[in-house]
Design goal:
The chain is α+β, with helices and mostly antiparallel strands and 948 residues long. The protein is 15% helix and 31% strand.
Length: 948
């Protein structure tokens, strides 16, 4: 337990700690380590025969390069239908369905549910090499350091078993003690089979994301220290008192106490303003836990997202026959709560986060160097984020170091997505593993929040609450530097410092078309204040978004490592079989625009909620597992897919975001457009004397109206009201899309809305016949060379073996395989705005909010049996698992006549449906013109096949 020293210099607590768990930082040690990177001897042990046959006493026959994994070195089995995966497969159709038969054949195995390893191995692997202990190390304490192992290791030095380690989150350290100088045989077995049920879907072990790899990565080395040594340093900042309480553990070979001189020095190292502090000297007992208050001075530099100031503290101990030196990095920061909001050093902040699910396709395991993590965090920050949540895994030290330097708030988690609370082996492991995480990474100022893991299961709610209540209290008593919650997703318990819950978001699992974005007409006023008001601590919205885009098949060539995008290859081949491969890029771009639109409303709903703590996206980048969840605007490599830039995204996701609250997005020319203007501002200080400005422009950028709001000082908070805009729309003569833009200082945000004329012709002119059935009368018109607008009566459009296609506006939530075909099954529309049929209907090539009023009143038609040349005027992008040719509007010649078939209801209640009224007007205007001359022919029977 952490206790502050009440004296200005020193408090000694006598605890004998021989052979304790060693330090938590990248030490500057008194002896240079010996690297163990390079070639090792190797042998797979799928039958678990190695211990019984004493392989540790034999020379292993093959070779492997470490750091690395078996897959990286080409060891393991080819994937087949017999592969024993680590991860639940909800959609098991790959194992049985006829359409996947060719993908189950040897030599052509391709799985659709996650990225596919080149080689797969689950079991024990043996690693061995000779080491040379230098003569100057002979009387020193020697430690083996293995930064990240997957999973359980056993170590033998020569023929002696040293021990076993099983951490998924922290380094495996083995204390050799004194070792005779000369050559020794070092043997390590690594077992990645699941002996502790942390959850087969947990991202710490699952094939869904990083893969259940076998190996050792990161730093691998031997270190030597004197018999009395520093084994741990923890630094506890106290910003109010401007001190850092330093807690040190010293170890001795014998456990006997000895007096030594302790010196502590600290200085800043990454800020423009240098801050070097006076050293602290003391005489201490070498066997104990030592706590010292280190004065940080009146000019102490604080750490936060805007000024990530870091300090290095060096500790040295020196006695009659020993010397040791260690260096630790820390930041002076206090991440706390005030009511239902988070604070950083007393100032309110808002978590704008995304998940990091251990997705590293090239290696199959997390990046172990700071440079790669720096790249990831900078990309997240460029998109306006300030927070990463590590879903059911804890990243290596490099992630914390990069976040420290860049000012990113991290939520680490235990490696769990499992059942809990049976008081058995798993419960004990949860405590042990989470304690290891706190000790290993606790000094990092970026380590701000912690949870057990993800979405626990397996016990009655009362027992679950009791288990997590005890766990959270244990953490709070152990380490006050972080904020704790039970688990990501649930349960909400009174002990938590903050709550993680899926309640405040647009869509929930199983809601289908009942979710707000599909069931409620577009607006920008909904927030979650009623839900937030129920609690006294911050709420973080769990895994918001989950909106998918179509696969980017150009991405396949990026998979040059141990994981291949065979799932993408399946989807590409089925698209080709359905004669639409040439549209793949258009599907990506159009669905991506819709995905971005959904995320914008998702994020803004959170930002406009007063008192909200923050959100965690699922996700900024794609999730390659769980059926293939393409939920990111970035791909699995954190690279752009091309349909939205970081600059565009950060307009609605940033430290400062102007917000427009519109009761609707569709207006008519006899109305006055109105919007309430708010702002969410979580910058480093209030915006003094800000001058908000607004403009409404046409789609071509020309100004329709503009103005300024009152000058105001904007506090650090959200739901700050700036004013109201009202603009008459009487000047609107033709249907137009408008863009409202709000600018406050350097921050701008924008919203599309539409204005339609009150009166527009929707009656039939010339020889066009409007019909709702393909009856004898309609057929005669076509046989006589006439024109027909066929809008099938409700319920008359056929489905297929999956049933009728649900008419949802949003993109797919997660994917249809993992959600058991939860609606919607589609990814928005694709159309050509230049087509004459749409000449008087304002639209882009993709879905925008005005399409909500059409799609939700539609029947989606399946054109798989049509000639391949027929491309719809308004196409619907299908789920990548089925890749059907879908249409809302298409044209063709039939029996000598000209036909447009429209699955959208363009006839009922048109007085109150200006969008439908306008599209009907546009279609009829086209059909009454000479431009209406379809160039493709379809038989009457093919048209009939669409309808009941």
């Amino acid at each position: 337990m952490y206790r502050r020293a009440k004296v200005s210099c020193l408090l000694i607590v006598i605890i004998v700690i021989s052979g304790c768990y060693t330090g938590t930082n990248t030490w500057a040690s008194s002896s240079e380590p010996i690297s163990l990177s390079g070639q090792w001897r190797f042998r797979l042990d799928p039958e678990n025969a190695g211990i019984g046959e004493k392989w540790y006493s034999q020379e292993l026959p093959k070779t492997i390069t470490l750091p690395g994994s078996t897959a990286e070195n080409g060891y393991g089995d080819d994937v087949s239908v017999r592969t024993k995966w680590t991860g639940r497969i909800i959609d098991k159709s790959w194992l049985t369905a006829a359409e996947y038969k060719k993908y189950r054949e040897p030599g052509n195995v391709k799985v659709p549910f996650w990225l596919q390893p080149v080689k797969h191995y689950r079991g024990i692997a043996w690693y061995q090499r000779d080491i040379e202990i230098p003569s100057e190390w002979e009387n020193k304490h020697i430690t083996l350091f293995l930064e990240r192992c997957h999973w359980e290791t056993k170590v033998w030095l020569d023929n002696q078993l040293i021990g076993t380690r099983n951490s998924l989150s922290t380094p495996h350290r083995y204390e050799f003690g004194k070792v005779k100088a000369g050559r020794h045989r070092l043997t390590i077995s690594v077992d990645n089979s699941v002996k502790i049920n942390v959850g087969e879907n947990a991202h710490s072990i699952s094939d869904h994301t990083q893969s259940n790899w076998n190996g050792i990565v990161g730093r691998m080395e031997l270190t030597a220290a004197d018999s009395v040594r520093i084994t741990d340093i923890q630094v506890y900042p106290n910003v109010a008192k401007k001190i850092a309480v330093v807690r040190m553990e010293l170890g001795t070979e014998s456990g006997n106490a000895a007096r030594c001189k302790l010196t502590l020095t600290a200085e800043s190292f990454n800020s423009k303003k240098k801050h070097r502090l006076q050293p602290v000297h003391s005489s201490v007992d070498s066997s104990g836990v030592i706590e010292i208050e280190y004065p940080m001075g009146k000019d102490v530099l604080l750490w936060d997202e805007f000024s990530p100031n870091l300090y290095r503290m060096k500790a040295t101990i020196e006695g009659q026959s020993f010397f040791d030196s260690k260096t630790v990095t820390f930041g002076m920061r206090e991440f706390k709560t005030k009511g239902t909001q988070f604070t950083i050093n007393g100032r309110k902040t808002f978590l704008r986060g995304t998940l990091e699910c251990c997705i590293f396709p090239k290696t199959g395991y997390p990046a172990m160097d700071v440079q790669k993590w720096t790249r990831i965090i900078k990309i997240a920050q460029a998109h306006g984020l300030n927070h990463l949540r590590f879903h059911s895994h804890c990243p290596p030290r490099a992630a914390f170091e990069a976040a420290d330097r860049l000012g990113c708030y991290l939520q680490a988690e235990g490696p769990f997505w499992s059942k809990v609370g049976d008081s058995g082996k798993l419960d004990k492991y949860i405590y042990t593993e989470c304690d290891r995480i706190l000790k290993e990474y606790g000094n990092h100022p970026s380590f701000c929040l912690m949870a057990y893991g993800n979405e626990p299961d397996g016990m009655r709610k009362s027992n679950r609450g009791r288990f997590f209540g005890n766990l959270v209290n244990h953490w709070k008593n152990s380490d006050p530097r972080h904020l704790y919650t039970s688990a990501s997703g649930w349960p909400i318990i009174p002990e938590s410092n903050f709550h993680s819950t899926q309640k405040p978001r647009i869509h929930h699992w199983g809601h289908g078309l009942r979710c707000r974005i599909n069931a409620k007409a577009p607006e920008t006023t909904t927030d979650y204040r009623d839900f937030i008001s129920k609690y006294e601590v911050p709420v973080v919205s769990h895994e918001i978004g989950q909106w998918s885009a179509y696969p980017n098949f150009e991405e396949i060539k990026k998979y040059t490592g141990v994981l291949k995008a065979k799932n993408f290859e399946i989807f590409r081949e089925t698209l080709q079989e359905n004669h639409m491969l040439d549209q793949a890029h258009d599907f990506l771009m159009a669905s991506g625009k819709l995905q971005t639109l959904c995320y914008k409303e998702e994020i803004e709903s959170s930002l406009r909620t007063p008192g909200f703590g923050g959100f965690q996206l699922l996700d900024l980048h794609d999730f390659p597992g769980q059926g293939t969840a393409l939920v990111g605007v970035l791909d699995s490599f954190w690279e752009s897919k091309g349909y939205v830039t970081a600059g565009e995204y950060s307009r609605f996701c940033n430290q400062t975001v102007p917000l427009a609250k519109m009761k609707k997005r569709i207006w008519t020319s006899d109305e006055t457009f109105a919007a309430e203007i708010d702002i969410a501002h979580f910058g480093p200080k209030p915006l003094k004397n800000a001058n908000p400005a607004w403009s409404i422009t046409y789609e071509d950028g020309k100004t329709f109206a503009s103005g300024k709001l009152s000058t105001v000082t904007i506090p650090v908070d959200n739901a700050v009201t700036l004013g109201r805009i009202e603009v008459p729309l009487a000047k609107v003569k033709n249907a137009r899309k408008f863009v409202l833009t709000i600018t406050v200082e350097d921050f701008s945000n924008d919203w599309d809305f539409w204005a339609y004329p009150v009166e527009v012709r929707t009656d039939v002119r010339s020889d066009v016949v409007v019909a709702n059935r393909l009856d004898d009368k309609t057929v005669r018109v076509l046989n006589n060379g006439g024109k027909v607008l066929l809008m099938p009566a409700a319920g008359t459009v056929r489905g297929d073996r999956y049933g009728k296609i649900p008419p949802g506006f949003s993109s797919i939530f997660w994917n249809t395989a993992w959600t058991k075909r939860q609606a919607p099954h589609t990814l928005g529309v694709l159309c050509n705005p230049a087509h004459r049929a749409l000449a008087e209907f304002p639209t882009e090539y993709h879905s925008n909010w005005q399409w909500w009023y059409l799609i939700t009143k539609s029947q989606i038609m399946i054109l798989n049996d049509f000639p391949v040349e027929v491309r719809p005027i308004v196409q619907v992008i299908d789920d990548w698992f089925t890749n059907r040719r879908l249409a809302l509007v298409f044209e063709t010649k039939v029996s000598g006549g000209k036909l447009i078939v429209c699955g959208i209801d363009l006839h009922s209640n048109l007085k109150k449906r200006p969008v439908a009224r306008q599209l009907r007007h546009s279609l009829l205007s086209y059909m009454n013109s000479s431009a209406f001359d379809p160039d493709k022919n379809v038989s009457l029977n093919t048209i009939r096949s669409l309808l009941k």
